Amino acid sequence: MPDQKSYRVTFIVLILVLIGCFLMNISLGSVSISLEGIFAAFTGGEIEKETWRTTILTIRLPKAIAAILVGFGLSLSGLLMQTLFRNPLSGPFVLGLSSGASLGVALLIMGASAFGGFFGTLLLSSYSLVIAASLGSFLVLLTVMIVSTRVKDTMSILIIGLMFGSITAAIVSVLTYFSDAEELKQFMMWTLGSLGNLSWQELGILSGLIVGGILLSIVSIKSLNAFLLGENYARSLGIDIKKARYTVIIATSLMAGSCTAFVGPIAFIGLAIPHITRLFFNTTNHKILVPSVCLIGGILLLICDSIAQVPFSDITLPINAITSMVGAPVVIWLLVRKRKMIF
Fold first, then answer.
1. Dihedral-angle region of residue 174 (phi above 0 means left; psi in -120 to 50 means alpha; beta otherwise)
2. What pLDDT score was predicted for residue 283?
3. pLDDT above 60: residue 114
């Protein structure tokens, strides 16, 4: 078992890699910008082309920050759900949050055409999509929480969340069946996910929600470690199971729900990053896992977004496709190399 000193060294290395990926993400795109140009844009110094400053500060910097925040939120949400349900296939959306957000956006897009004109355009603004997705996630979460008060074991909550996710997904399917081609295209574009459409005000809201979820996760570290050995063991340590369970669910909802609302459903990150982190650190201690999944999640999403930008080209690929194509082989390679899953 590695000692605390080796963990500190690893964390420092991960932070440096995160900074390097952050700078790489900002420098790559249809036009490559040197590190000197990036620092000049940040500090207000002289820059080779003034248009670069606008590109960095209004487009690339917000997108890179969004990638880090979403990487933090989804990776940590996946870790919380896998620990709470003691299920390696659990992800941040097992409670139906993503399906609820999709339902909210589907209702907005499919219903906007009925109003038409200026009001229909207003309904499809960026903030309206965020509000619709947030309301959809919140309503599904609220329903799951109310129903979960009637059950005692955690696995029942997992099944209830999956069933509500199936119900909302079915309603979305019915809506898409009756919608026209333009509405389907708008909805599909949202489901592909995008990190590049956030304003600084939206980033501020997203960062506040992610930080809130991280703080709740840190408070829950003792409970999370106890959950790995079962609820009876956690109860023997004096942990309030119901309170700890709700804290974890609320933390997951804050992070996964806000990420989905602002950037759309991003696949793979929440499911796979916790496994990559456990294999990388060879530990199940959440005091180590909580910060490390955030760092690795942020690094991987920055790399995926850099690939999605298709450097030196005007083409931008869907971030959802890249996260799966890049991440899945990494998980397969790690599992084959380690020959077993740590959980």
1. alpha
2. 86
3. no
Nearest-angstrom CA–CA distance, 241 and 237: 10
Q: For residues 186 and 199, what is the distance between their CA atoms, to the nearest angstrom?
A: 20
Query: Is-contact 269 78, C-beta < 8 A?
Result: yes
What is the Cα–Cα distance from 84 to 244, expressed in whole angstroms? 10
Contacts of residue 80, Cβ cutoff 8 Å, sequence gap at least 6: 92, 217, 220, 224, 248, 251, 252
pLDDT tens digits for range 7-18: 888 899 999 999
What is the distance between the alpha carbons of residues 235 and 102, in angstroms, rounded to a whole number? 37
At residue 70, what is the residue type?
Answer: V
Q: What is the pLDDT of residue 130?
A: 84
Dig out the tokens for 73 from the structure: 């939120």
Q: What is the DSSP string of 181-212?
A: HHHHHHHHHHHT--SS---HHHHHHHHHHHHH
CA distance 75 to 156: 23
Q: How far is CA 25 from CA 64, 140, 160, 200, in A?
A: 6, 35, 39, 18
Q: pTM of the prediction?
A: 0.89
